Amino acid sequence: MNMNVKKLGIALCLVAAGVAGRFFLSGLLPSTPHLTVTLHGITQPLFMMDLFFVVATVSLLGGLLLGRRYALLIPLAVMLVTDVVLGNTAIFLFTWSGFAFIALLGGYARSRLSPGPISVAQMAGLGVGSVLLYDLWTNLGCWLGWYPHTLEGLSACFTLALPFTLWHLLSTTAAVTVTAVALATLNLTPLLQTSPAPSPLHRYTPVAAALGLALLSLASL
């Protein structure tokens, strides 16, 4: 099978999974547990549940399976289709570019990890890295858009975001780990085989596109 046709098929499957996940799981999230934590005088729930892990997982897999050249198409297509129905916030470009960064992380890992199928532990580590990358970037957008541009405002922004970050860490690490175990069980880990570094054109064009989206995010505020 032509490699481009194979990659197109994988991309369509990942987009379909992301869209279906955001639509059909939105009504199945459990209620926020009645557990609270107080930090810097702010009392809030321990977890704030959302469907971040769905888009994060397909974005990361897009980078790992397709490389950076095609990976950006996955999160942008999922978010474009689902945001039309579910909506987003004033910083939607930060969320879109945040998922694009996760896809690039997957593409970077594809060419940088040691040769051979990617392990469950490596997938879990990439899940944690994805959360930290995304939350730092989108929290910056929240601070710039909704909080005073002071150290106190920055502290309040990141403090109030902790319940989301904790949920993102738990749900995303679990999701990518389950995905890796499923692929191993089905003997599909060769799909996650690392590959040599791409050509400079294929390497830097997606990076430039993601950075352009990030600059547009900043300019939109």
Structural features, described:
- By secondary structure, the protein is mostly helical.
- It has one domain.
- It is built from nine helices and two strands; from the N terminus they run αββαααααααα.
- The protein has a two-stranded antiparallel ribbon.
- α1 packs parallel to α4 and α5 packs antiparallel against α9.
- The chain is globular, with a radius of gyration of 18 Å.
- The model has no long low-confidence stretch (mean pLDDT 83).
How many discrete domains?
A: 1
Largest sheet: 2 strands, antiparallel
Helix/strand structural class:
mainly alpha
Strand content: under 5%
On the 0 to 100 scale, the average pLDDT is 83
Q: Which percent bin holds the helix content?
A: over 70%
- Basic shape: globular
Give the strand tally: 2
Which stretches are low in confidence, meaning pLDDT under 50 for 5 or more residues running? none
The end-to-end span amounts to 45 Å
Radius of gyration: 18 Å
Counting H and I runs of at least 4 residues, what is the number of helices? 9
**H and E string:** HEEHHHHHHHH
**Strand neighbour order, sheet with most strands:** 1-2
What key phrases describe this protein's structure?
9 helices, single chain, mainly alpha, 221 residues, 71% helix, two-stranded antiparallel sheet
